[in-house]
Amino acid sequence: MALAGLPRPFVLLWAAQLVSNLGTQVSLYALGLWLYQRQEQLATFAAVAIAVQLAKLLVLPVLGRRLALWPRRRVMLLANAIGSGCTLLLALHLLRFGGSTPVVLGCIAVAAAAEATLLLCFSSLIPQLVPREQLGAASGLFASADGAIVMAAPFLGALLAASGGLVGVLAVDAASSLLAAACTAWVALPLASAESMGDRAAQAEPQALGSGVRAALAELWGRPQWRSLLLINTLVAGALAAVEIGFPAWVVSAFGVGRLSLAMALGGLGYLLGSQWWARRWAGAAAGGWATVLRRALLLQGVLLTGSGLLVFQAPGGPLAVLWFVSVASFALAVPLVLAALQALWQRQIPAALQPRLFAGRYSLEALARLAALLGISALVDRLLVPAVAWPHWPAWFIGALGTGPGRPTAMALGLLGWAVIVPLLAQWRSLGRVARVAG
């Protein structure tokens, strides 16, 4: 990721949000792990992710209606203060009372709402902080950091929880929020951002600002080029959420923890290479290049996911195992390309004055897609595929082709997910090309 040449205010805010978001995600993972260890129920671990997505769905409609009217710096400082204060209160509660699940989930929801506020504020500030010709580079940094946090948070959360305890993790999270607040207070924002962009937006669209996320989504859906971006954006959010829980469950069940550790290491390497490739090759490209890399990288991910459902890749070793690891690295390499291309196209398509409201709709639909994916893949595996594979009346040739044993139902679900990516992508292939022509 190349920071050279980007405006200093953007770099400082990007670094501040990176630190803050990493601290929040690490503490969320550690809290989920702590709840799971206390009750030994996977549902309690999933409850953390569900609480996070529900909090976003509650706060984003409010932000969509009002954010453009509020001074952005003050909103970000308030969100940082709420996040750090909530985290410190939770640490004190754990020290004094030991922690109860409702209190923990409530604090998680408040922290997630604060983080969603920071995300929306920063993403809608990018066009004001960065010249048009540098939107590709800025979008790459924005998207790559978000994906890297998702990959690093489980490892750091487990490591910090083991070394410093849960209270230590929460203290680090609070400190990261305070550091981000200091950077936000210090950085020089453009006048339109420091004051508010809302006056112009309110004069232009008073009725729209009075509406909520539903109106924002209706407006995005009403324009064909925005509709394609919204559909693909929602598809990507849901697919990645399903992979985040489905892939580790498959690998651990079928191959063991050792292969998962190696796969995660290769995935991290692939992600780093993908981020560098975007920065060097695609960040300065035209919108047509962004659409091309989005379509091809997402198609590659869909094909790789369909391959995961094939019985042949269940082999524990041999040449096919090498191909399996290469596929894992390739999938991870494509993640920052897809996320950065999407973000760049969004920034180029949506006028800066409309981004707070329309991005609130975009992120609300993302949260809903993630929530549906988290619940859906679990239900698909546990309620449908596991009983289906265990049904004793299948013909021998059929069950032999499907395969049996640990991890097979999850592998099948990932294979179906691949088709769920490929079919809508092909349906929107030409529309994404038109999006690029309009954006360019």
Task: Describe, in short, the structure shown.
The chain is mostly helical and 440 residues long.
Note the main attributes of this structure:
single chain, 17 helices, Growth Hormone, Chain: A, mainly alpha, 85% helix, 440 residues
What does it look like?
With 440 residues, the chain is mainly alpha-helical. It has 2 domains: 1-208, Growth Hormone, Chain: A; 211-440, Growth Hormone, Chain: A (Up-down Bundle), CATH 1.20.1250. It is built from 17 helices and no strands. It has helices at residues 8-39, 42-66, 72-97, 101-129, 135-186, 191-194, 198-204, 206-209, 213-222, 224-254, 257-282, 287-308, 319-349, 355-390, 396-402, 408-427, 429-439. Helix 1 (8-39) runs antiparallel to helix 2 (42-66).
Furnish the topology, listing elements before pairings.
Elements: H1 8-39, H2 42-66, H3 72-97, H4 101-129, H5 135-186, H6 191-194, H7 198-204, H8 206-209, H9 213-222, H10 224-254, H11 257-282, H12 287-308, H13 319-349, H14 355-390, H15 396-402, H16 408-427, H17 429-439
Helix content: over 70%
Mean pLDDT: 82
Number of domains: 2
Q: How does the helix and strand content classify structurally?
A: mainly alpha
CATH class of the largest domain: Mainly Alpha
Give the biggest sheet: none
